[in-house]
Design a protein that fits this description.
Chain lengths: ~550, ~350
């Protein structure tokens, strides 16, 4: 446990007395659940409720007592200050807090920010006839209609939405209509999904599984028959005979559309998005709605495809995390984790690279100052290692102390030694339990991104036989970009052409804290001078 | 502030996440684990990273174990299990039994969290798939263990170009076996494993036999894209039988258009589902917590997913239904939230 954490414990006893303020911007189920949950935990909640929030068809989600459960999500929020707005307030960070300016020009300060913008459904694929419809929360079926539901067209449908469609298909059959569900994969990823599927099948819903070829849809009798639509398709398993289904309506079942996420929400989430464009990156450190940036939580469908249960769980888990985050605000006597010296050229590199948004700029008339906000700082050292003016010093992990520890090994011994700098979250955890090979000296660092070019070259010029930087796997860095920065720095070193053969050696590798055996192999092979090919490891992954 | 700790039964990833979230919120807890060490199933599983993290969430456990063990807010009791809850005037006491000596101790509790986890399905029950009988038939956790120990050579024998088949839904979505539910984790786990194996041995040819691919959520799209790039064959339909031919070749029999199709593989990996833990039924009965039709502990509702019918008793993780690690961690966070909120309302044990 770090010193800061234990300080936090001592302070928590008084935290209850302090007013902790959270701002929630957005709407829908997730926003409501998060608001109520924070209020229930004693947080002072302001909910800037947007009038128009897109949402899916949760209300028709099947399963035991879901209708009853939905009633638990009350729109009548207890202990929450609701401000109805039609545009999101302007939010900026100021002195370690969030300052929001609302529509009516009133201003307030908050310790944490929840973003819940909701998301619209993807439009109906253009490949479908114009008269086909999009299945959404407004969809209604008249008694006796023949309806085809088309899921997974072009891209996978949202599982919860698919299940809602299956439920509607079954209800339609029970009301005297006919239903066909065309699918690639049945969404049963719920405990009651399988029973829903069986229930629909027994009710008389026809299911058709198509493979690579989508069903062909004919309109207005073009495929024969007099119905408005005629679907022809082959079942993937039983493909000998083509099935024909005549119907009155065709419903496309799609999923959340990342491109519909409003710009204000993207900005509040610091532009942190995953590969599909949903908010928050895919890093496991961003689970349960927590973002890399201090005090920012993103909940709901804008973070990806979620069903009701997951939405609620995410909002509540995020609220518990936020409460913990805010409890730290009561610390009165905090040690400054980093300090900025007068050498600072105010280039704002630190402000730009800090993954936790802990650097702020204090606009003073004569001389704007870059100022770290201690509570937000996670002491990864990315700012210090990136500062061109070498103006940032970390209180607990100063570079010069590390370099002198390396020098203490002595030139004679250093020549035989491979110096390994490893992230404390992965390699550092492992180094305590594995057998570190002979001639390897391991130093735990707060993040691979802490290891600056200055540290690398100082170690080499002190005479080390090799330098290996070990970070967490790409996409699993607790400071988002630390491991990638380390890779780029080693890459630049290797690009000098000084490390082609023999000693000294320079390398970079990634590891997870549950890879003890692999870490041992990696260390001994790197120290023995084996190339990455015969070591079977990726300690020069940055070559790619 | 409460003095009495929250007692968390189960020191797997669910229990540890609850403890960690409570630590962060300043609440004391006691983690009771039957095994000699913390970490549960996840501690036996391997990292699935290829050239990047594949979001298996396994590695979270290591940090959690360390943090929870080191925290002064948490008392860790290994080698013990919950035996009963007794009333004590205005509060409740929890009786904890030492699993080796049978000796019992009493502990005060402000709330009780059940995080007793799951049991993997015993693949040997599916005799036609030959686990334990045919050479080269593994379960997913078995391959995990090899990867974890860096002894994958025991799996591929140094042979390149192995033909590997994954069989999905082993013991899941199986009404006949009383498990008509999806185990939630196995599709993603198998696809990640397929990519990991291809990353380790590039010549490997992988086929996945599935009923339906259940891969919602973050990374799902990326995972499918990668699987396609790496030429993993996805075949709908789960084989009926596996037989062993000469040279230990495994013949997998599937049905296409009513005909039997035979395909040859060198290794088969069975994606075993999650079953409720055997201890869950008696524990739930003792505490008055209702069970679902599949033998998992029943949460109060789809929204109050961490509460049970009994005030002050909460569930976290797979004991209340199958989950992958990401869902488990989220559910445990929800459980901590429920405790924090109930604490303010004075609605604990």
């Amino acid at each position: 446990m770090t010193e800061r954490q234990s300080n936090m414990f001592n302070a928590i006893e008084q935290a209850e007395a302090t007013v902790l303020r959270a701002l929630i911007v957005g709407g829908g189920t997730s926003a409501q659940v998060a608001a109520q949950s924070l209020a229930d935990m004693g947080v002072d909640v302001t909910f800037a409720r947007l009038s128009d929030i897109p949402s899916k068809v949760y209300i028709s989600l099947p399963g035991p007592n879901v209708g009853e459960a939905m009633k638990e999500i009350s729109t009548d929020l207890e202990g929450v200050q609701i401000i109805d707005v039609d545009r999101a307030p302007a939010v900026r960070r100021a002195e370690g807090r969030f300052r929001a300016v609302f529509q009516d020009a009133t201003e307030s300060c908050f310790e944490c920010l929840f973003v819940a913008p909701g998301v619209a459904l993807r439009p109906k694929p253009a490949a479908l006839p114009e008269t086909a419809e999009l299945f959404d929360s407004r969809t209604e079926i008249q008694p006796g209609e023949r309806v085809a539901f088309l899921t997974d067209c072009l891209s996978p449908s949202d599982p919860a939405l698919t299940m809602a469609a299956i439920k509607m298909a079954a209800q339609n059959v029970l009301d005297g209509g006919q239903s066909l569900v065309c699918f690639k994969h049945v969404a049963v990823a719920h405990l009651f999904g399988e029973s829903l599927y069986d229930w629909a099948r027994n009710a008389g819903v026809q299911f058709l599984r198509y493979g690579s070829e989508m069903p062909t849809i004919f309109t207005d009798g073009q495929g024969g028959g007099s119905a408005r639509f005629r679907l022809k398709a082959r079942d993937l398993i039983d493909s000998e005979e083509e099935s024909v289904f005549d119907c009155d309506r065709v419903m496309a079942v799609t999923g959340p559309d990342a491109s519909s996420i409003p710009q204000w929400a993207v900005e509040m989430a610091d532009g942190d998005r995953d590969d599909e464009g949903f908010l928050l990156s895919e890093s496991i450190h961003c689970h349960s709605g927590g973002s890399f940036a201090g005090g920012v939580f993103v909940v709901g469908e804008a973070t990806g495809s979620l069903d009701l249960i997951t939405c609620v769980a995410q909002a509540k888990a995020a609220a518990a995390k936020a409460k913990a985050w805010m409890s730290g605000f009561d610390l009165t006597a905090k040690a400054e984790p980093i300090s900025v010296s007068t050498a600072c050229a105010r280039c704002l590199t630190c402000h730009r690279v800090c993954p936790h948004k802990a650097m702020s700029v204090k606009p003073e008339p004569s001389r704007p100052r870059v100022e770290p906000w201690p509570l937000w700082c996670r002491e990864c050292g990315i700012c210090a290692s990136s500062c061109p003016a070498v103006a940032i010093r970390m209180a607990k992990y100063p570079e010069d102390v590390m370099i002198s520890r390396v020098r203490e090994i002595g030139p004679a011994a250093l020549e035989q030694t491979t110096v390994v700098f490893g992230c404390q979250r992965s390699a550092g955890l492992l180094a305590e339990s594995i057998r570190v090979p002979e001639h390897v000296q391991f130093f735990a660092v707060p993040c691979a991104g802490w290891v600056s070019e200055h540290v690398i070259w100082s170690t080499l010029s002190a005479g080390a036989g090799g330098v290996l930087v070990v970070g967490c796997h790409h996409g699993n860095c607790a400071s988002n970009t630390g491991t990638d920065r380390a890779a780029a720095r080693i890459r630049r070193g290797l690009d000098t052409g000084l490390f082609r053969q023999g000693r000294p050696r320079l390398g970079y590798a990634t590891i997870a804290p549950n890879e003890a055996a692999r870490f041992e192999r990696l260390l001994s092979r790197f120290a023995a001078g084996q190339t990455s090919a015969d070591a079977g490891t990726d300690y020069s992954a940055c070559h790619k | 502030m409460v003095e009495k700790p929250v007692i968390i039964v189960g020191g797997g990833i669910a229990g540890l996440t609850v403890a960690k979230t409570l630590i962060d919120n300043g609440l004391p807890s006691t983690v009771v684990e039957r095994a000699p060490s913390l970490g549960g199933h996840v501690r036996k599983w391997a990292c699935m990273a290829t050239d990047r993290c594949q979001r298996c969430f396994c590695c979270l456990t290591e940090g959690l174990v360390q943090e929870v063990s080191a925290s002064e807010k948490v008392q860790v009791l290994t080698g013990r299990e919950l035996s009963s809850v007794v009333s004590n005037g205005d509060g409740k006491l929890v009786r904890l039994k030492d699993v080796t000596t049978g000796e019992e101790m009493l502990a005060e509790a402000s709330a009780l969290v059940l995080a007793t986890g799951f049991e993997p399905y015993d693949a040997a029950e599916k005799i036609f798939w030959g686990h334990g009988r045919l050479k080269g038939v593994y379960t997913l956790p078995e391959v995990d263990a090899l990867l974890r120990e860096d002894t994958l050579s025991a799996f591929n024998n140094g042979t390149s170009g192995l033909r590997v088949a994954f069989l999905q839904c082993v013991g899941s979505r199986d009404a006949a076996a009383g498990a008509n539910y999806c185990s939630q984790y196995c599709c993603k786990a198998a696809l990640r494993m397929a990519l990991k194996l291809i990353h380790e041995c590039t010549e490997m040819a992988v086929t996945v036999f599935y009923i339906d691919l259940q891969i919602a959520g973050k990374y799902a799209g990326e995972l499918l894209k990668k699987v396609e790039q790496k030429k993993v064959r996805l075949r709908q339909g789960v084989p009926g039988e596996i037989t062993q031919g000469p040279d230990d070749v495994l013949e997998v029999v599937t049905e296409q258009n009513g005909h039997n199709v035979r395909e040859q593989f060198d290794r088969v990996i069975l994606s075993v589902g999650q079953r409720p833990s055997r201890a869950a039924a008696s524990l739930a009965a003792q505490l008055g917590v209702p069970m679902s039709e599949f033998g998992f502990m029943e949460p109060k509702s789809a929204v109050s997913h961490s509460l049970t019918a009994v005030q002050g008793i909460y569930v976290a993780g797979t004991c209340s239904g199958p989950k992958d690690i990401e869902q488990t961690v989220q559910h445990a966070g929800q459980t901590a939230e429920a405790i924090l909120a109930d604490l303010r309302r004075g609605k604990l044990l």
